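Appendix C: a fully annotated inverse folding record. The material below is reproduced so that readers can follow the format used throughout the book. The structure is listed first as tokens, followed by the designed sequence.
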């Protein structure tokens, strides 16, 4: 098998029924799979691994937008709420188009930065449950 590579260029991101991909400059969907803890008892085969709970997150870096339809405004207005999300990865490449869906707990990111720089926001949103993976393309 030969090496395959692809640049990250196009996504669609819907949070709570609103599209936000135009603001996003970086994203990471981490399934948050944790290692279990090894446990022992006082018998020769008394060893087992206790499963750990996953801690999935959606980390976003985006150009700050404080307009009424901007992501900053949305996160501040809906702080603490749980919203459905859909993230389409490589939607422009049918053979590689995959979709992640789930529910994310909303929280605003920090505000501010250095003078005369482009205002950006970084926020990590915890998912409620594991994300669902779906192959959309052919």
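Designed amino acids, in order:
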């Amino acid at each position: 098998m030969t090496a395959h590579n692809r640049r990250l260029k196009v996504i669609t991101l819907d949070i709570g029924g609103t599209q936000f991909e135009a603001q996003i400059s970086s994203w990471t969907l981490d399934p948050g799979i944790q290692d279990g803890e090894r446990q022992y008892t006082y018998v020769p085969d008394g060893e087992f691994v206790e499963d750990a709970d996953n801690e999935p997150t959606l980390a976003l870096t985006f150009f700050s937008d404080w307009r009424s339809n901007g992501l900053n405004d949305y996160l501040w207005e809906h702080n603490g709420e749980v919203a459905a999300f859909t993230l389409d990865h490589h939607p422009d490449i049918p053979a590689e188009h995959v979709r992640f869906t789930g529910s994310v707990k909303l929280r605003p990111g920090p505000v501010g930065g250095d003078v005369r720089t482009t205002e950006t926001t970084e926020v990590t949103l915890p998912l409620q449950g594991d994300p669902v993976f779906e192959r959309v393309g052919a």
